[in-house]
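Supplementary notes for students who missed Thursday's class. We covered one full example, reproduced here. Read the sequence, then the structure, then the short commentary at the end.
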Amino acid sequence: MPTDEITAAAAGSWTLGDRIVHRMGFGSMRITANPDRERAVAVLRRAVELGVNHIDTAAFYVSPGGTLGVGTGPARYATELIRAALAPYPEDLVIVTKVGFGYDPEAGFTEARTPAQLRAQVEENLRRLGLDQVDVVNLRLGRGPATVPLADRFGALAELRAAGLIRHLGLSNVRPEHLDEVAGIAPVVCVQNNYGVDAYREQDAFVRDCGERGIAYVPFFALAGTGREAGASADQGEAVTAVARAHGVTPHQVRLAWTLHQGPHVLAIPGTGNTAHLEQNIAAAALTLTPEDLAQLTPPR
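Structure (token representation):
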């Protein structure tokens, strides 16, 4: 596909509350890895040029250290790189961040449990992004047993929403029952979970449930799968490779197209620090998979 035909709009749109986003977005975690800040700035600006108006980030996306645990030199925060590249922000740009987890250079990863800790994380995002209000804040749950009720933490964020610091709320790393726990506190506009063509397919029913509730489902690590922060494996799997070969595209593009085919409410947020990879990712917004392709990519039950 010629570069001038690539557009994130090819995937269609969905609403996050009162904000409309193209279903093909961009995840900012990997832009911190390279010590060349201008490379990250170029990737972000190119993403917007290609129609991306939904950028996912977090204050704990920082290198060296942070989520990726790589790199040298001064700290490079994804939130600050977004500000450097895109502020003043386009009116249609929707920035989604997450709290619950934080990163301290000395203490490492921390978890916010109290209203004061959650407010501090929201304010850090606002400061680094240069915003007065964040479009969407996801409350990310930890993997272990909860020490503070979800309703209490979500309620604290709902108070910040009422105060105008947050426009909309979402949840991350959650199960279906968590949506019921926060019902009545504030609307949930999106769920962000680890999910992909060959990872965590037990969530298929949850994906459909979110669609029935009108909630966006936003998979992270759709490309990396179980590789998570380490990135996608060289072994893409026989089914993905076969479908890619049939369409003359890359396995990564098949993974993204499959993600978008899971429902009109499913959004993709692939991340990269490479402009060429960015363009390939966004080109996947226009890739149509056949029913036969989708059946081939569905594991037997």
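Commentary. The first strand starts at residue 13 and ends at 16. Confidence is low (pLDDT under 50) at residues 227-231. If anything here is unclear, bring it to office hours.
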